[in-house]
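Review form for a predicted model. The reviewer records the input and the model, then writes brief findings.
Reviewer: anonymous (R2)
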Amino acid sequence: MTPDAIGAAPRNPAPALATLVPPLWVVVVLSATVHLAMAALIPLFQDEAYYALWATHPALGYYDHPPMIAWWIWLGEALFGATPFGVRILSVLAFTAVTPLCWRMATLVGGCERAGRIAALYFNVMVLPFALGFAATPDAPSTLFWALATWGVVEALHAFGGRPRAGWWFLAGAAAGLGVLSKFTGLFYCFGLVGWLLATSPGRASLRRPVVWLTAGLGLLMVAPNVLWNYQHDWLGLQRQFGRLAVAGPHRAWVGSYLLAMIAAITPGILGALAVGVVTAGRKASLLLWTMAPLALYMLAHSTHSQVQANWLAPLFPGFAVLAAIGSDRRPATFVALNAGLGLGLSVLAVGLAFWPGAPFFRGDNPPNQTKGWPAFANDLHDLAVENGAVWVATAGYGLTGSLAFYLPGRPVWDTTDQVRYGFRGAFPRDYCTAPGLFVVSEADAAEANLHFSKVGAVKVLVRRSLAAEVMRYAVIPVSGVTDPALCAQPQTQGANRLK
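Model under review:
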Protein backbone atom coordinates (compact mmCIF):
# COMPACT_ATOMS: atom_id res chain seq x y z
CA MET A 1 0.00 0.00 0.00
CA THR A 2 1.29 3.43 -0.90
CA PRO A 3 0.77 6.55 1.15
CA ASP A 4 -1.68 7.75 -1.49
CA ALA A 5 -4.22 5.35 0.03
CA ILE A 6 -4.98 7.85 2.75
CA GLY A 7 -2.85 10.88 1.95
CA ALA A 8 0.13 12.09 0.04
CA ALA A 9 3.62 12.22 1.46
CA PRO A 10 4.10 15.31 3.61
CA ARG A 11 4.93 18.43 1.66
CA ASN A 12 6.73 21.48 2.94
CA PRO A 13 4.68 24.66 3.25
CA ALA A 14 5.87 28.01 2.07
CA PRO A 15 8.24 29.45 4.69
CA ALA A 16 6.08 32.54 5.19
CA LEU A 17 3.05 30.43 6.02
CA ALA A 18 4.99 28.04 8.21
CA THR A 19 6.30 30.77 10.46
CA LEU A 20 2.79 32.10 11.15
CA VAL A 21 1.80 28.93 13.02
CA PRO A 22 3.60 28.23 16.34
CA PRO A 23 6.12 25.39 16.30
CA LEU A 24 5.07 22.20 18.00
CA TRP A 25 7.42 22.62 20.93
CA VAL A 26 6.02 26.06 21.76
CA VAL A 27 2.46 24.71 21.92
CA VAL A 28 3.53 21.72 24.02
CA VAL A 29 5.50 23.81 26.53
CA LEU A 30 2.82 26.47 26.94
CA SER A 31 0.01 23.95 27.30
CA ALA A 32 1.93 21.81 29.78
CA THR A 33 2.89 24.85 31.85
CA VAL A 34 -0.70 26.07 32.10
CA HIS A 35 -2.10 22.67 33.01
CA LEU A 36 0.63 21.85 35.50
CA ALA A 37 -0.11 25.13 37.26
CA MET A 38 -3.84 24.36 37.29
CA ALA A 39 -3.13 20.86 38.61
CA ALA A 40 -1.12 22.27 41.51
CA LEU A 41 -3.32 25.24 42.41
CA ILE A 42 -6.91 24.06 41.97
CA PRO A 43 -8.32 21.73 44.67
CA LEU A 44 -9.85 18.44 43.59
CA PHE A 45 -13.44 18.27 42.45
CA GLN A 46 -15.60 15.47 43.76
CA ASP A 47 -15.09 12.87 41.03
CA GLU A 48 -11.31 13.32 41.24
CA ALA A 49 -11.40 12.84 45.01
CA TYR A 50 -13.55 9.73 44.53
CA TYR A 51 -10.99 8.30 42.10
CA ALA A 52 -8.24 9.19 44.58
CA LEU A 53 -10.13 7.05 47.11
CA TRP A 54 -9.97 4.20 44.59
CA ALA A 55 -6.20 4.67 44.43
CA THR A 56 -5.90 3.88 48.14
CA HIS A 57 -6.89 0.32 47.20
CA PRO A 58 -5.53 -0.47 43.69
CA ALA A 59 -7.65 -3.15 42.03
CA LEU A 60 -8.36 -4.65 38.62
CA GLY A 61 -11.72 -2.93 38.40
CA TYR A 62 -14.25 -0.70 40.11
CA TYR A 63 -18.00 -0.26 40.04
CA ASP A 64 -18.01 2.92 37.94
CA HIS A 65 -15.09 2.42 35.53
CA PRO A 66 -12.15 0.21 34.62
CA PRO A 67 -9.06 0.73 36.79
CA MET A 68 -6.58 2.82 34.76
CA ILE A 69 -7.25 6.18 36.42
CA ALA A 70 -6.84 4.63 39.89
CA TRP A 71 -3.48 3.17 38.87
CA TRP A 72 -2.36 6.53 37.49
CA ILE A 73 -3.36 8.36 40.65
CA TRP A 74 -1.63 5.75 42.81
CA LEU A 75 1.60 6.24 40.84
CA GLY A 76 1.31 10.03 40.88
CA GLU A 77 0.78 10.08 44.63
CA ALA A 78 3.69 7.69 45.12
CA LEU A 79 5.90 10.20 43.32
CA PHE A 80 4.47 13.53 44.51
CA GLY A 81 2.40 12.75 47.59
CA ALA A 82 -1.34 12.81 48.27
CA THR A 83 -1.77 16.31 46.86
CA PRO A 84 -3.86 17.62 43.98
CA PHE A 85 -0.66 17.75 41.92
CA GLY A 86 0.16 14.13 42.74
CA VAL A 87 -3.37 13.04 41.88
CA ARG A 88 -3.29 14.84 38.52
CA ILE A 89 0.27 14.70 37.22
CA LEU A 90 -0.14 11.68 34.94
CA SER A 91 -3.37 13.06 33.51
CA VAL A 92 -1.60 16.33 32.65
CA LEU A 93 1.20 14.40 30.97
CA ALA A 94 -1.37 12.36 29.05
CA PHE A 95 -3.09 15.40 27.56
CA THR A 96 0.32 16.92 26.85
CA ALA A 97 1.35 13.79 24.95
CA VAL A 98 -1.75 13.99 22.75
CA THR A 99 -0.48 17.24 21.19
CA PRO A 100 2.45 15.71 19.24
CA LEU A 101 0.17 12.83 18.22
CA CYS A 102 -2.23 15.35 16.65
CA TRP A 103 0.73 17.02 14.93
CA ARG A 104 2.00 13.76 13.47
CA MET A 105 -1.40 12.46 12.33
CA ALA A 106 -2.32 15.73 10.65
CA THR A 107 1.11 15.90 8.98
CA LEU A 108 0.63 12.42 7.50
CA VAL A 109 -3.07 12.52 6.67
CA GLY A 110 -3.02 16.14 5.48
CA GLY A 111 0.25 15.73 3.63
CA CYS A 112 1.72 18.91 5.12
CA GLU A 113 3.75 19.76 8.20
CA ARG A 114 1.81 23.02 8.51
CA ALA A 115 -1.36 20.96 8.95
CA GLY A 116 0.39 19.23 11.82
CA ARG A 117 1.20 22.52 13.51
CA ILE A 118 -2.37 23.71 13.11
CA ALA A 119 -3.72 20.47 14.58
CA ALA A 120 -1.46 20.82 17.63
CA LEU A 121 -2.63 24.38 18.09
CA TYR A 122 -6.32 23.64 17.58
CA PHE A 123 -6.32 20.74 20.03
CA ASN A 124 -5.03 22.95 22.82
CA VAL A 125 -7.31 25.95 22.29
CA MET A 126 -10.60 24.05 22.07
CA VAL A 127 -12.59 24.55 25.25
CA LEU A 128 -12.90 20.91 26.32
CA PRO A 129 -9.19 19.92 26.12
CA PHE A 130 -8.20 23.28 27.63
CA ALA A 131 -10.57 22.86 30.58
CA LEU A 132 -10.08 19.10 31.03
CA GLY A 133 -6.34 18.98 30.46
CA PHE A 134 -5.45 19.12 34.16
CA ALA A 135 -8.16 16.86 35.62
CA ALA A 136 -7.66 13.33 36.95
CA THR A 137 -10.61 11.57 35.33
CA PRO A 138 -10.83 8.44 33.15
CA ASP A 139 -11.09 10.78 30.16
CA ALA A 140 -7.34 11.49 30.34
CA PRO A 141 -6.09 7.92 29.72
CA SER A 142 -9.05 7.24 27.43
CA THR A 143 -8.15 10.21 25.20
CA LEU A 144 -4.43 9.37 25.17
CA PHE A 145 -4.88 5.72 24.25
CA TRP A 146 -7.53 6.51 21.61
CA ALA A 147 -5.09 8.93 19.99
CA LEU A 148 -2.20 6.46 20.31
CA ALA A 149 -4.23 3.69 18.67
CA THR A 150 -5.24 5.96 15.78
CA TRP A 151 -1.66 7.17 15.34
CA GLY A 152 -0.41 3.58 15.22
CA VAL A 153 -2.77 2.69 12.37
CA VAL A 154 -1.99 5.92 10.49
CA GLU A 155 1.74 5.20 10.73
CA ALA A 156 1.20 1.61 9.60
CA LEU A 157 -0.72 2.77 6.54
CA HIS A 158 1.93 5.34 5.66
CA ALA A 159 4.86 2.96 6.16
CA PHE A 160 6.45 2.56 2.76
CA GLY A 161 9.86 2.33 1.18
CA GLY A 162 10.75 -0.80 3.12
CA ARG A 163 9.92 0.53 6.58
CA PRO A 164 8.35 -2.06 8.92
CA ARG A 165 4.63 -1.90 9.71
CA ALA A 166 4.13 -4.64 12.32
CA GLY A 167 5.29 -2.51 15.24
CA TRP A 168 2.74 0.18 14.44
CA TRP A 169 -0.08 -2.34 14.36
CA PHE A 170 1.00 -3.80 17.70
CA LEU A 171 1.09 -0.28 19.14
CA ALA A 172 -2.45 0.31 17.88
CA GLY A 173 -3.73 -2.95 19.36
CA ALA A 174 -2.12 -2.41 22.75
CA ALA A 175 -3.34 1.19 22.91
CA ALA A 176 -6.89 0.21 21.92
CA GLY A 177 -6.95 -2.39 24.69
CA LEU A 178 -5.53 0.04 27.25
CA GLY A 179 -8.18 2.54 26.14
CA VAL A 180 -10.90 0.08 27.09
CA LEU A 181 -9.05 -0.55 30.35
CA SER A 182 -9.36 3.21 30.95
CA LYS A 183 -13.02 3.69 30.08
CA PHE A 184 -15.55 1.54 28.27
CA THR A 185 -15.87 4.38 25.76
CA GLY A 186 -12.83 2.78 24.11
CA LEU A 187 -15.07 0.01 22.81
CA PHE A 188 -16.55 2.50 20.35
CA TYR A 189 -13.09 2.97 18.86
CA CYS A 190 -12.80 -0.80 18.40
CA PHE A 191 -16.22 -0.96 16.72
CA GLY A 192 -15.24 1.84 14.35
CA LEU A 193 -11.89 0.26 13.51
CA VAL A 194 -13.57 -3.05 12.69
CA GLY A 195 -16.02 -1.18 10.45
CA TRP A 196 -13.13 0.57 8.66
CA LEU A 197 -11.28 -2.74 8.19
CA LEU A 198 -14.34 -4.33 6.62
CA ALA A 199 -15.77 -1.43 4.62
CA THR A 200 -12.76 0.27 2.99
CA SER A 201 -10.22 -0.98 0.49
CA PRO A 202 -7.20 -0.03 2.69
CA GLY A 203 -8.90 -1.80 5.57
CA ARG A 204 -9.60 -4.98 3.65
CA ALA A 205 -6.03 -4.97 2.37
CA SER A 206 -4.82 -4.70 5.94
CA LEU A 207 -6.91 -7.70 6.96
CA ARG A 208 -4.78 -9.85 4.67
CA ARG A 209 -1.81 -9.22 6.95
CA PRO A 210 -1.50 -11.72 9.85
CA VAL A 211 -0.17 -8.97 12.10
CA VAL A 212 -3.58 -7.30 12.16
CA TRP A 213 -5.17 -10.43 13.61
CA LEU A 214 -2.36 -10.76 16.14
CA THR A 215 -2.99 -7.13 17.04
CA ALA A 216 -6.59 -7.94 17.93
CA GLY A 217 -5.34 -10.63 20.30
CA LEU A 218 -2.96 -8.16 21.93
CA GLY A 219 -5.82 -5.73 22.51
CA LEU A 220 -7.90 -8.45 24.16
CA LEU A 221 -4.94 -9.31 26.37
CA MET A 222 -4.82 -5.72 27.62
CA VAL A 223 -8.50 -5.85 28.58
CA ALA A 224 -8.27 -9.27 30.26
CA PRO A 225 -7.57 -8.00 33.82
CA ASN A 226 -10.82 -6.06 33.95
CA VAL A 227 -12.77 -8.91 32.35
CA LEU A 228 -11.41 -11.17 35.09
CA TRP A 229 -12.42 -8.66 37.77
CA ASN A 230 -15.93 -8.39 36.34
CA TYR A 231 -16.25 -12.17 36.24
CA GLN A 232 -15.20 -12.40 39.89
CA HIS A 233 -17.69 -9.66 40.86
CA ASP A 234 -20.79 -10.89 39.00
CA TRP A 235 -20.11 -8.55 36.04
CA LEU A 236 -20.73 -5.56 38.29
CA GLY A 237 -18.88 -2.94 36.24
CA LEU A 238 -20.33 -4.09 32.92
CA GLN A 239 -23.86 -4.04 34.34
CA ARG A 240 -23.29 -0.53 35.65
CA GLN A 241 -22.16 0.93 32.32
CA PHE A 242 -24.12 -1.13 29.82
CA GLY A 243 -27.26 -0.74 31.88
CA ARG A 244 -27.39 2.79 30.47
CA LEU A 245 -28.17 1.30 27.06
CA ALA A 246 -31.52 -0.06 28.29
CA VAL A 247 -34.07 2.73 27.98
CA ALA A 248 -37.81 2.55 27.62
CA GLY A 249 -37.80 5.15 24.87
CA PRO A 250 -37.36 8.89 24.36
CA HIS A 251 -38.90 10.74 27.25
CA ARG A 252 -36.99 14.02 27.29
CA ALA A 253 -35.00 15.49 24.46
CA TRP A 254 -31.54 16.75 25.34
CA VAL A 255 -30.47 16.89 21.70
CA GLY A 256 -30.42 20.67 21.55
CA SER A 257 -28.30 21.09 24.67
CA TYR A 258 -25.98 18.34 23.46
CA LEU A 259 -25.41 20.05 20.11
CA LEU A 260 -24.93 23.46 21.72
CA ALA A 261 -22.46 22.01 24.21
CA MET A 262 -20.44 20.46 21.40
CA ILE A 263 -20.38 23.72 19.43
CA ALA A 264 -19.13 25.52 22.52
CA ALA A 265 -16.59 22.81 23.38
CA ILE A 266 -15.11 22.69 19.88
CA THR A 267 -15.61 26.46 19.38
CA PRO A 268 -17.48 27.79 16.32
CA GLY A 269 -14.49 28.70 14.15
CA ILE A 270 -12.74 25.37 14.58
CA LEU A 271 -16.04 23.58 14.05
CA GLY A 272 -16.38 25.32 10.69
CA ALA A 273 -12.85 24.27 9.75
CA LEU A 274 -13.70 20.74 10.89
CA ALA A 275 -16.67 20.61 8.54
CA VAL A 276 -14.45 21.77 5.66
CA GLY A 277 -11.88 19.14 6.60
CA VAL A 278 -14.44 16.34 6.53
CA VAL A 279 -15.55 17.37 3.04
CA THR A 280 -12.13 18.05 1.54
CA ALA A 281 -10.14 15.22 3.12
CA GLY A 282 -12.23 12.53 1.46
CA ARG A 283 -10.89 9.02 1.74
CA LYS A 284 -7.66 10.32 3.26
CA ALA A 285 -9.59 10.77 6.50
CA SER A 286 -11.67 7.58 6.26
CA LEU A 287 -9.88 5.98 9.22
CA LEU A 288 -10.56 9.00 11.43
CA LEU A 289 -14.20 9.21 10.40
CA TRP A 290 -14.88 5.51 10.85
CA THR A 291 -13.31 5.34 14.30
CA MET A 292 -15.00 8.52 15.52
CA ALA A 293 -18.48 7.93 14.11
CA PRO A 294 -19.76 5.21 16.50
CA LEU A 295 -19.18 7.26 19.65
CA ALA A 296 -20.51 10.49 18.12
CA LEU A 297 -23.65 8.77 16.81
CA TYR A 298 -24.28 6.88 20.02
CA MET A 299 -24.06 10.06 22.10
CA LEU A 300 -26.46 11.76 19.71
CA ALA A 301 -28.91 8.90 20.23
CA HIS A 302 -28.29 8.99 23.99
CA SER A 303 -29.19 12.67 24.04
CA THR A 304 -32.73 11.83 22.95
CA HIS A 305 -33.47 10.40 26.39
CA SER A 306 -30.78 11.65 28.77
CA GLN A 307 -28.24 14.43 29.18
CA VAL A 308 -24.83 13.92 27.61
CA GLN A 309 -21.81 15.35 29.43
CA ALA A 310 -19.36 17.00 27.03
CA ASN A 311 -16.39 15.17 28.57
CA TRP A 312 -17.84 11.84 27.41
CA LEU A 313 -16.69 12.78 23.91
CA ALA A 314 -13.17 13.80 24.95
CA PRO A 315 -11.45 11.02 22.92
CA LEU A 316 -12.87 12.51 19.72
CA PHE A 317 -11.12 15.85 20.13
CA PRO A 318 -7.71 14.79 18.73
CA GLY A 319 -9.56 13.69 15.58
CA PHE A 320 -11.51 16.94 15.54
CA ALA A 321 -8.21 18.84 15.68
CA VAL A 322 -6.71 16.82 12.81
CA LEU A 323 -9.74 17.24 10.54
CA ALA A 324 -10.03 20.95 11.36
CA ALA A 325 -6.33 21.38 10.55
CA ILE A 326 -6.85 19.73 7.17
CA GLY A 327 -9.75 22.10 6.58
CA SER A 328 -7.51 25.06 7.48
CA ASP A 329 -4.28 24.03 5.78
CA ARG A 330 -4.80 25.97 2.54
CA ARG A 331 -6.62 28.89 4.10
CA PRO A 332 -4.96 32.25 4.83
CA ALA A 333 -2.92 32.60 7.98
CA THR A 334 -5.49 35.05 9.34
CA PHE A 335 -8.12 32.30 9.16
CA VAL A 336 -6.04 30.05 11.41
CA ALA A 337 -5.17 32.91 13.75
CA LEU A 338 -8.82 33.95 14.14
CA ASN A 339 -9.95 30.38 14.80
CA ALA A 340 -7.20 29.79 17.33
CA GLY A 341 -7.68 33.18 18.96
CA LEU A 342 -11.44 32.70 19.28
CA GLY A 343 -10.92 29.24 20.71
CA LEU A 344 -8.31 30.38 23.20
CA GLY A 345 -10.40 33.38 24.22
CA LEU A 346 -13.48 31.26 24.87
CA SER A 347 -11.41 28.68 26.75
CA VAL A 348 -9.72 31.21 29.00
CA LEU A 349 -13.03 32.98 29.61
CA ALA A 350 -14.87 29.77 30.50
CA VAL A 351 -12.13 28.47 32.82
CA GLY A 352 -11.57 31.88 34.37
CA LEU A 353 -15.24 32.39 35.16
CA ALA A 354 -15.60 28.83 36.46
CA PHE A 355 -12.66 28.89 38.87
CA TRP A 356 -12.50 32.55 39.81
CA PRO A 357 -12.65 32.85 43.61
CA GLY A 358 -15.65 34.45 45.21
CA ALA A 359 -19.30 34.12 44.28
CA PRO A 360 -19.72 31.31 41.70
CA PHE A 361 -20.46 32.53 38.20
CA PHE A 362 -21.94 29.16 37.18
CA ARG A 363 -24.41 28.29 39.91
CA GLY A 364 -25.06 24.78 41.14
CA ASP A 365 -23.14 21.71 42.25
CA ASN A 366 -20.77 21.61 39.27
CA PRO A 367 -17.10 20.54 39.21
CA PRO A 368 -15.63 24.08 39.42
CA ASN A 369 -17.76 24.91 42.47
CA GLN A 370 -16.82 21.56 44.00
CA THR A 371 -13.18 22.69 44.17
CA LYS A 372 -13.78 25.75 46.36
CA GLY A 373 -13.38 26.25 50.08
CA TRP A 374 -12.32 22.80 51.22
CA PRO A 375 -9.35 23.57 53.56
CA ALA A 376 -11.35 25.93 55.79
CA PHE A 377 -14.42 23.69 55.68
CA ALA A 378 -12.34 20.63 56.59
CA ASN A 379 -10.83 22.51 59.55
CA ASP A 380 -14.29 23.49 60.81
CA LEU A 381 -15.50 19.91 60.43
CA HIS A 382 -12.47 18.55 62.26
CA ASP A 383 -13.09 20.93 65.17
CA LEU A 384 -16.72 19.89 65.33
CA ALA A 385 -15.75 16.21 65.35
CA VAL A 386 -13.38 16.80 68.28
CA GLU A 387 -16.06 18.78 70.14
CA ASN A 388 -18.57 15.93 69.78
CA GLY A 389 -16.13 13.06 70.34
CA ALA A 390 -16.83 11.69 66.85
CA VAL A 391 -14.44 8.96 65.77
CA TRP A 392 -15.65 8.79 62.18
CA VAL A 393 -17.54 10.79 59.54
CA ALA A 394 -20.61 9.40 57.78
CA THR A 395 -21.87 10.56 54.39
CA ALA A 396 -24.63 9.74 51.92
CA GLY A 397 -23.03 10.18 48.51
CA TYR A 398 -19.86 9.15 46.70
CA GLY A 399 -18.76 12.68 45.77
CA LEU A 400 -18.80 14.06 49.30
CA THR A 401 -17.27 10.81 50.55
CA GLY A 402 -14.30 11.26 48.23
CA SER A 403 -13.78 14.93 49.06
CA LEU A 404 -13.95 14.46 52.82
CA ALA A 405 -11.69 11.39 52.66
CA PHE A 406 -9.11 13.48 50.80
CA TYR A 407 -9.31 16.63 52.90
CA LEU A 408 -9.72 14.86 56.27
CA PRO A 409 -6.89 12.35 55.95
CA GLY A 410 -6.67 11.64 59.68
CA ARG A 411 -10.35 10.78 60.17
CA PRO A 412 -12.23 7.78 58.69
CA VAL A 413 -14.97 8.69 56.21
CA TRP A 414 -17.58 6.14 55.14
CA ASP A 415 -20.67 6.34 53.00
CA THR A 416 -23.66 4.71 54.71
CA THR A 417 -25.53 4.29 51.41
CA ASP A 418 -24.86 2.68 48.02
CA GLN A 419 -22.30 0.20 49.33
CA VAL A 420 -21.90 -1.41 45.92
CA ARG A 421 -19.49 1.41 45.04
CA TYR A 422 -17.05 0.62 47.83
CA GLY A 423 -16.23 -3.05 47.51
CA PHE A 424 -12.58 -2.12 46.97
CA ARG A 425 -12.44 -0.84 50.58
CA GLY A 426 -13.61 -4.09 52.11
CA ALA A 427 -16.43 -4.54 54.58
CA PHE A 428 -17.86 -1.63 56.52
CA PRO A 429 -15.94 -1.44 59.87
CA ARG A 430 -18.10 -2.99 62.54
CA ASP A 431 -16.70 -0.67 65.23
CA TYR A 432 -18.47 2.27 63.56
CA CYS A 433 -21.87 0.62 63.92
CA THR A 434 -22.09 1.91 67.50
CA ALA A 435 -19.29 4.49 67.67
CA PRO A 436 -20.18 8.20 67.75
CA GLY A 437 -19.81 9.95 64.43
CA LEU A 438 -20.78 13.01 62.43
CA PHE A 439 -23.22 12.67 59.57
CA VAL A 440 -22.45 15.22 56.84
CA VAL A 441 -24.97 15.90 54.10
CA SER A 442 -26.32 18.88 52.17
CA GLU A 443 -28.53 21.04 54.36
CA ALA A 444 -31.62 20.17 52.32
CA ASP A 445 -31.11 16.46 53.08
CA ALA A 446 -30.62 16.73 56.85
CA ALA A 447 -33.66 14.51 57.53
CA GLU A 448 -31.75 11.56 56.01
CA ALA A 449 -29.93 11.14 59.32
CA ASN A 450 -33.08 9.58 60.79
CA LEU A 451 -33.06 6.96 58.05
CA HIS A 452 -29.55 5.73 58.79
CA PHE A 453 -28.99 6.12 62.55
CA SER A 454 -30.86 5.27 65.74
CA LYS A 455 -29.47 8.24 67.70
CA VAL A 456 -29.52 11.64 66.04
CA GLY A 457 -28.35 14.89 67.64
CA ALA A 458 -28.96 18.53 66.87
CA VAL A 459 -28.17 19.83 63.40
CA LYS A 460 -25.23 22.18 62.99
CA VAL A 461 -24.92 24.03 59.69
CA LEU A 462 -21.45 24.49 58.20
CA VAL A 463 -20.88 26.57 55.09
CA ARG A 464 -18.22 25.96 52.47
CA ARG A 465 -17.12 29.35 51.16
CA SER A 466 -15.01 30.80 48.39
CA LEU A 467 -13.57 33.94 49.93
CA ALA A 468 -16.64 35.36 51.65
CA ALA A 469 -19.14 33.94 49.17
CA GLU A 470 -21.27 30.95 50.08
CA VAL A 471 -20.77 27.90 47.84
CA MET A 472 -22.55 25.07 49.68
CA ARG A 473 -24.37 24.58 52.97
CA TYR A 474 -24.07 21.30 54.87
CA ALA A 475 -25.92 19.79 57.79
CA VAL A 476 -23.49 18.24 60.29
CA ILE A 477 -25.24 16.00 62.79
CA PRO A 478 -23.88 13.97 65.74
CA VAL A 479 -25.06 10.39 65.23
CA SER A 480 -24.55 6.82 66.42
CA GLY A 481 -26.19 3.45 65.92
CA VAL A 482 -26.09 2.57 62.21
CA THR A 483 -29.46 1.00 61.39
CA ASP A 484 -28.73 -0.54 58.00
CA PRO A 485 -28.71 -4.32 58.60
CA ALA A 486 -26.56 -4.83 55.52
CA LEU A 487 -23.79 -2.90 57.29
CA CYS A 488 -24.24 -3.87 60.89
CA ALA A 489 -26.27 -7.08 61.13
CA GLN A 490 -25.08 -9.26 64.01
CA PRO A 491 -23.32 -12.42 62.86
CA GLN A 492 -25.25 -15.62 63.48
CA THR A 493 -23.97 -18.00 66.14
CA GLN A 494 -23.02 -21.57 65.34
CA GLY A 495 -26.07 -22.75 67.29
CA ALA A 496 -28.36 -20.58 65.19
CA ASN A 497 -26.82 -22.03 62.07
CA ARG A 498 -27.50 -25.56 63.33
CA LEU A 499 -31.14 -24.76 64.05
CA LYS A 500 -31.79 -23.79 60.45
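Findings: Residues 1-9, 492-500 have pLDDT under 50 and may be disordered.
Further findings: The first helix runs from residue 15 to 18.
Recommendation: see findings above.
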